[in-house]
User: Fold this.
Amino acid sequence: MRVYDDVRRMVGMRGASHPVLDWTWRIAVILFSDLVGAVAVNNFLTPAHILAGGVTGVAQILHHYVPALGVGTMYFVFNIPLFILGYRYLGRRFIFQTGIAILGFSALADFVRLHFSTPTDPLLMGLYGGVLTGLSSGLVIRVGGSMGGTDIVSLVVHRLTGRNIGSVSFVMNAAIVLLSMLVFGVPAGLYTLVSMYAASRVVSGLMHFQQRKTALIVTSKPSEVASAIGQRLVRGSTVMRAYGAYTQRERGVLLCAMTHLEIADLKEIVQALDPDAFITILDTTEVIGRFRKSAP
Assistant:
């Protein structure tokens, strides 16, 4: 689910939203993410000679040697050919939102630097910068875009060749770490690596926020179990008829999507009603449709 859907549900909004409100929300999230990314680069990473990953890191290197060239300006220039490449091979909605993210970050990275006290320890600077960078990228990804750069290259390579989209980013970031060591010294390169790791963990956490699971429950009491799941977890279930290959007895198989936080309650419900039930929990990357059962 997108961040927009999560927040809409938390504030009690139900049903389909108006397209204008939907796009307004998406753009607001993207611009907020750009601001967070600009603060990460200008207040934490650049002062500590720590590089961000991908195109931003290359822009930081050029800015170091030619201060007149702003990080945001170089970021925008490098992304022009990548944006054209993405427009040709990727979806229009994705590339449009990516374009907004690129423009927003390019402008904010050159003109926004908040004035507040920051730690002097480069390790803390790298960690905070990495967390904020990951938050920036992760939020944009959750609303259906990207921050450009190697994200576009990775997706195009995957679209054309089917190869793992992480390989391009890995090679690029490895080169960034080596550049950091050559330009700023080995310690700076190691701090850059720490910052990149922190950013990747935050992105991963955002992408798996409220991670979905699919439960397959084989039980002799499908109606009772489905009713209890609906009442306690407010989840709908799909009941399929089957029979045991060994026992040759008819069973019900319930298919139910839920979050990982609800798995413990599900086990308690099923085992209380049918101690002999068989439960399999599967990872689910996406759920489309009505995820939560409507309250009666």
Remarks:
- Residues 7-16 have pLDDT under 50 and may be disordered.
- The two ends are 23 Å apart (CA to CA).
